[in-house]
Amino acid sequence: MSANRFYTHFDTETPGQRRAHEGEYRSAFQIDRDRIIHSSAFRRLQSKTQVFLSGEYDFYRTRLTHSIEVAQIGRSICAWLQQSSDLLDADFFIDPDLVESACLAHDLGHPPFGHTGERSLHVLMAPYGGFEGNAQTLRILTQTIFSEGREGMNPTRALLDAVLKYKTLRAEDAGAKNHYLYDDQARFLDFTLGGRPFPAELTPGKKRNGFRSIECQIMDWADDTAYSLNDIADGIHAGFITLPKLDAWAAGQSLAPDEQQHLEFLRKAIGDGRVEARLNRCIGDYIRGCTLAKSAGFLSGATHRHQYTLQIDSLLKSQAVLHKRIALDLVFLSPALQQMDHKAGFILTRMFEVLRDRYIDRTGSRLHLMPPALESEIEKAEDKAASARLVCDWVANMTDRFAFRTYRRLFDADFGSITDFV
């Protein structure tokens, strides 16, 4: 395969040495992608909540189908930019395999029950370093994806940079509820930055978290595209977003002219019974609405990945924002989903409390409640924070269904049989 001048050894370097296979036919970024796809962490996404609890209906999106959709959109943005931008060339382009890897990996760290699970674990883990979905993704990629040996996949620097939407350590932004990395991940952040310290103007929090490689920007817009178009389609199909509900919602809003235009487009799609087709067509608009511009940052001298900015058509950005508002108000804040959120938070809290007594505080019984290998690792943990992180890993890895079953085995007197434990 011909060399791509966009990337150098700085981009393909890994935290540890990668074993070179004789006759290797894959690029470093293709190896990243293949390791993600063939991991149990990726497979678990098939039973993790996107909007609705997995398994409620066959055709609603899960974290897995969402991640696949994001990956397709990300690759298409790369192809569009290579075709349309005079800043790229046949041997100088944004690698679609790298972007696909970031898109497939971006939700690996999300726990069961969607954002409710993330908020619950953030509260429960507050004394032990917190919990954040993006930070957990980094932990999976670098430390735990191959669970048999508690090893990471030794990802390339470019992949880590593409996945890390947030680059602020928790200790640097006291009180943050999300958008942080765990403090013990400083070494992986340092590797991602090539050992270069942040300049003074990139203060912790929003400014620092806004510092992103071009691949991370593409992944983020692909995620926004899938979320604002495909997830709202699920909300319509599920009956949460109807014409009467949409009209009642709009009556209480102060909408700009462009937002009125977007609302009318959505109303017509619902009225014509063409929701899937119309919103799918918008995906192409969101891809073609991307342009590439030159920019500069403190890593621009080290890599081309920090020499470009993804620019998005403002009309499309306003449509995405409007769709998110509609989804939040009519779907996520609906009584039906809020009731499920309450139950999900209750389940995770009760489970974690039992595991905390047994494995973190070690004040409860000596019953074996977790897999033997993990129990053994917790016994060797140096302090409560390390024990808690291992307990949190196990809970965060759970699918929705496995979390429900585990809760019932612990608390439901009528649930459990020999076959249920096998």
Structure write-up:
This protein is an all-alpha fold and 422 residues long. It has 3 domains: 9-209, Hypothetical protein af1432, CATH 1.10.3210; 214-332, no CATH class; 336-421, no CATH class. Helices cover 55% and strands 2% of the residues. The protein has helices spanning 9-12, 28-37, 40-43, 63-84, 96-105, 114-124, 133-144, 157-163, 186-192, 206-209, 214-237, 243-251, 257-271, 275-288, 314-332, 335-360, 372-379, 384-397, 400-411, and strands spanning 290-294, 308-312. The chain has a two-stranded antiparallel sheet. Helix 2 packs parallel to helix 5 and helix 5 crosses helix 11 (214-237). It is globular, with a radius of gyration of 22 Å. The relative contact order is 0.12.
**Count of the domains:** 3
Secondary structure category:
mainly alpha
**Element-level helix/strand string:** HHHHHHHHHHHHHHEEHHHHH
What is the terminal separation in angstroms? 47 Å
Biggest sheet: strand arrangement: 1-2
Total helical segments: 19
CATH architectural label of the largest domain? Orthogonal Bundle
